[in-house]
Write a structure and sequence with these properties.
heterotrimer, A alpha/beta (326), B mainly alpha (161), C mainly alpha (501), A: 326 residues, D-Maltodextrin-Binding Protein, domain 2, 2 domains, 12 helices, B: mainly alpha
Chain lengths: 326, 161, 501
């Protein structure tokens, strides 16, 4: 009899504690660790950006940020997990252009909707690509490259790190802006692509700056241009594509934080403010620079606008190139 | 009436033929392309055809060559072992590593003809401790130790970083 | 002598107490996760990467490298003892290693695995130290056509792996090829055979296949009988290797080292391909090939040496070209990037302490590993004698956790269970899983490179024979094919005649 009463009391206390804790939690955000989902494997660019951010953000918010890698299906599995997560501010997503601006037009059936299931929190950083060619190619700049391609349509090929990746779509955007036809040779990741590029099996690659730079410095690859709007501090001597004959050409990858759609605006504002502070610190900006990225920042609305404009841009490129993942 | 003299090869052949045909059918929904410019369906379809042929040859041969009988299949063993692993995968995030380990060890132990409940529970507790020590403390795995609903009162979290 | 100066510098770094400590930690961790099925160096290095931020770059890389080649040592332990590959590159060791254990020779198998691994690790490190630049030139010569021809050669070697029915082995290889196709097709972006399941769009995990087909199937079939069943039925015949066994094994170690050193250079699973190739080679050069599959020590010595040699030389493309050729190397790139070191050809010249320190620590690490692993043999044998009814649930537990943590996904666990079911079917029908595993690993690479080679040559198929390296490998494959088929035809005809007599 007493044992049963004791059990009942314990259950009642636990229930009270659980119920009582709920409203308290909302007023003292964050009151427990925050889970930052990264939909890509560890040690990739997105993962490193996330981990360096997590360290500093944890200090700024006064709690610990746990990075949770959920790779697969081009980042859509991890993104979907956050889309369906509880909107209490304790689950966030750090992702890139590929999952939120390219995936909607690349995949016929996406398990999440960017507009409906996510609210943008902040634009963390931008990474840009560099146009490198094999040294034996008789083109010293973008104009000569375009001329070469026009002379033999379809004869020049370019490598990519896979169908629908930024590396692939940037090249497609380049080709359609310049009015030339290039042959696409897809690879799984850039390692083998770089080898074939160095030996001349493929001619062109729009690679991430940091990954291509050592080979450029070593003379194994020729750098023709960078794809950002302004020259990169890592290679100030390399012009932008925009300067070299295709004015207005820009291709950047954004890294940003997203939260499930119903997350409260106060929580979002708090996270946004904290991350903006982290981004302003010079040592963090240096860190990002070594990854070939530039800190961004701003309000959630600014980021939302960027996401929308990038989505419109890439969906056009995807449609024109006929790329699909189904 | 052909007699199945080599049952293992017979059923293996059937299995291969079935998979081969399935591969051909599934591959046909992708673009085939040509030998010089292969589409995504070309290679799988070719493999499917090869496998179907191999399976058919095995079946035909099994009617003529002698072979041993297929050993009996103890369904209980298969279901318990695979079931315990699947259950573990399903509940580990919700019930935590400690409880899931205990459940897995005890349930899986029932497949053995020498099963003893007390021993299995003790073993389960021991390995639960060991698993938490090795994987969560030692290797810093991101798994909750305790069931989620015990830790939601705002205190020390189930996630360990 | 430049090389000696470099090595002196390197040992200075490697033997510094802090780096010795990190080498030891790496070796210990590596052995541990090599033994644990499912968890592999990739997952572990990924998890520990953040903790290396605070370390010196040399210490970080020394530890991470130690984990990688340490895992090759540990992987053979479970393969031999419980027929469960601790590392996918140790899957081949299951074939003869476990048979040796069942005959009471577990000590000898574990010993030759450790010794062979040590020898191969040391020799391969010499290659890394002295021959990195020319070896990396060799790696550069491999284009899509060469990879395709290599895969063809490798798959034919898989046929040699088979002990029983040749026809069933070929069917298993083809089945493996089909399973490998599940996932996104690199050349077209189309997701094949995934039935709309997003987790399948990256393919079936190789860990799931290896663990399910080998490990789970073994446990299930072991439990089917009504009698008591312990792992080691025979009395354990001592913990060490006999002189005769040693004499039989060391040529295999040499061959495995050579093969592994070369294959490790090539992107895409060098260590695993090396172990399979070594097994096939040993079986082909053996005086009595029928011993293979029943406990031939060369079947353990060769592959174990090959996978360790492959693990060491796979650092070469990273350190000389800056190109990571497998997932672990990609993580090393991450580790270097975090420490502001750009991996590339200049690492050797601009960061000599890093390069030579890492190379020297590979010897140190290998020494630590052999010193660690040999005495452990006694402990492992003791562990074998734990009653099976307590042991196997623990094995299942470690497998389940290991598989789960690859991507923190329940699906992976279910996938492994499905493979386990398939594995039981195969055991009942006497179909060998090893050829399937090899087909599964090589198939996608073969197709990818076939199509890429044709894409690059603009549809011209003669590219496979006009490029010299590719031609050489295709010729080797053709001769291997003849070597396999001709004796078989003769035997079949004799069988048929005997039947009809």
């Amino acid at each position: 009899m007493t044992a049963a009463l004791r059990l009942l009391a314990a259950v009642a206390m636990a229930a009270a504690a659980a119920l009582g804790a709920a409203p308290a939690a909302a007023q003292t955000y964050p009151s427990k660790p925050i889970r930052l989902v990264v939909p890509f494997p560890p040690s990739g660019a997105t993962d490193i950006v996330a981990r360096t951010l997590a360290q500093k953000l944890g200090d700024a918010l006064g709690t610990s940020i746990v990075v949770d890698n959920r790779p697969g299906a081009g980042g859509t599995i991890g993104s979907d997990i956050v889309a369906k997560a509880a909107p209490d501010g304790y689950t966030l997503l750090l992702s890139t252009t590929s999952t939120h601006s390219i995936a909607p037009s690349l995949y016929a059936k996406l398990p999440y909707s960017v507009e409906r299931d996510f609210v943008p929190v902040i634009h963390v950083a931008d990474a840009t690509n560099i146009l490198v060619v094999t040294p034996s190619l008789p083109a010293a700049n973008v104009r000569e490259l375009i001329a070469l391609a026009k002379a033999k349509p379809g004869a020049l090929n370019y490598a990519s790190s896979g169908n629908g990746t930024i590396v692939h779509l940037t090249a497609e955007l380049f080709a359609s802006s310049a009015g030339i036809k290039l042959t696409h040779v897809p690879y799984k990741g850039t390692a083998l692509a770089l080898t074939d590029l160095m030996t001349g099996q493929v001619s062109i690659l729009f690679d991430n700056i940091v990954s291509a730079l050592p080979h450029v410095r070593d003379g194994k690859l020729k750098a023709l241009a960078v794809t950002s709007a302004r020259r990169s501090p890592l290679v100030p001597e390399v012009p932008t594509v925009s300067e070299s004959g295709l004015p207005g050409f820009v291709s950047d990858t954004y890294f940003g934080v997203f939260a499930p759609a119903a997350t409260s605006p106060e929580v979002i504002a708090r996270i946004n403010a904290a991350i903006n502070k982290v981004l302003a610190a010079p040592d963090y900006q240096e860190r990002l620079a070594t990854l070939g990225a530039q800190a961004a920042g701003g309000t959630p609305e600014q980021f939302a606008a960027i996401v929308r404009s990038e989505t419109a841009k890439w969906s056009r490129v995807v449609k024109e190139s006929g790329a699909s993942a189904e | 009436m052909a007699v199945i003299r080599h049952p293992k090869d017979f059923y293996a052949g059937l299995l291969f033929t079935g998979i081969g045909i399935a591969a051909i059918v599934l591959a046909s929904q992708y673009q085939l392309g040509t030998a010089a410019k292969m589409g995504p369906g070309y290679f799988p379809r070719g493999l499917g055809m090869l496998l179907t042929v191999l399976g058919a040859v095995l079946v035909v041969r099994s009617l003529r060559i002698q072979g041993t009988a297929i050993p009996p299949w103890n369904w209980r063993s298969t279901c318990v072992i695979l079931g315990s692993v699947v259950l573990f995968g399903l509940v580990v995030e919700k019930l935590g590593l400690a409880a899931s380990t205990l459940g897995l060890i005890v349930f899986a132990s029932t497949a053995s003809p020498e099963f003893r409940l007390k021993e299995a529970v003790l073993s389960g507790l021991f390995f639960a401790l060991l698993a938490v020590g090795v994987f969560i403390v030692g290797l810093k795995l991101q798994l909750p130790i305790w069931p989620i609903w015990l830790a939601s009162n705002g205190q020390a979290p189930a996630w360990i970083s | 002598m430049d090389l000696l100066n470099h090595l002196a510098l390197g040992f200075g770094v490697a033997l510094a107490p802090v780096n010795l400590m990190y080498a030891l930690i790496g070796a210990l961790l590596g052995t541990l996760i090599g033994v644990l099925p499912g968890i592999g160096p990739v997952a572990t290095i990924a998890m520990l990467l953040p903790t290396t931020y605070a370390l010196q770059p040399e210490s970080a890389l020394i530890m991470l490298a130690g984990i990688y080649y340490g895992a090759q040592y540990g992987g053979s332990t479970t393969s031999i003892l419980i027929n469960m590959p601790g590392e996918t590159s140790s899957a081949v060791t299951c074939l003869d290693g476990h048979q040796m254990a069942l005959q009471g020779q577990a000590g000898a198998a574990l010993a030759i695995a450790a010794l062979g691994s040590f020898f191969a690790g040391c020799v391969a490190t010499v290659f890394v130290a002295a021959f990195s630049p020319p070896l990396s030139e060799l790696a550069l010569k491999f284009g899509a056509a060469e990879y395709f021809s290599l895969m063809v050669l490798g798959l034919l070697g898989a046929v040699v792996l088979a002990h029983g029915s040749l026809l069933k082995a070929i069917a298993m290889i083809v089945f493996g090829l089909l399973l490998g196709i599940v996932g996104t097709d690199v050349n077209s972006g189309v997701t094949r055979f995934a039935f709309g399941i997003p987790e399948l769009s990256d393919g079936i995990g190789v860990v799931s296949v290896a663990m399910g087909l080998f490990g789970f199937a073994e446990i299930i079939t072991n439990l089917e009988g009504k009698e008591k069943r312990d792992i080691v039925a025979a009395k354990v015949k001592g913990l060490w290797i006999s002189k005769a066994q040693f004499r039989a094994a060391w040529p295999a170690v040499l061959r495995g080292t050579g093969l592994g050193s070369v294959l490790g250079l090539l992107p895409g699973g060098g260590a695993m391909l090396a172990s399979f190739a070594s097994y096939a080679l040993e079986k082909k050069v053996a005086k009595d090939p029928s011993r293979f599959g029943k406990g031939a020590i060369q079947g353990v010595a060769g592959p174990e040496s090959a996978n360790n040699a492959g693990a060491q030389t796979s650092f070469i493309p990273l350190l000389t070209l800056g190109i990571p050729e497998n997932a672990v190397m990609a993580l090393m790139v991450g580790a270097m990037t975090i420490h502001n070191i750009q991996p590339g050809p200049q690492v050797m010249t601009s960061n000599p302490t890093l390069f030579w320190g890492l190379v020297a620590s590979m010897w140190v690490g290998n020494l630590m590993l052999v010193v660690l692993n040999l005495p452990l043999i006694g402990m492992w044998i003791k562990l074998l004698q734990v009653p099976y009814r307590i042991l196997y649930p623990a094995i299942l537990l470690f497998c389940a956790i290991g598989v789960y943590t690859i991507s923190n996904a329940t699906f992976d666990v279910i996938q492994t269970a499905a493979m386990g079911f398939l594995g039981v079917v195969f055991v009942k029908l006497e179909c060998e899983p090893a050829p399937l595993l090899l087909g599964f690993v090589l198939g996608p690479m073969m197709e990818e490179n076939l199509r890429r080679a044709l894409l690059l040559s603009r549809g011209d198929p003669t590219v496979f024979v006009t490029r010299p390296l590719s031609l050489v490998m295709l010729l080797m494959a053709a001769s291997l094919l003849l070597l396999i088929v001709i004796p078989n035809i003769r035997r079949r005809r004799a069988d048929v005649f005997a039947e009809e007599a």
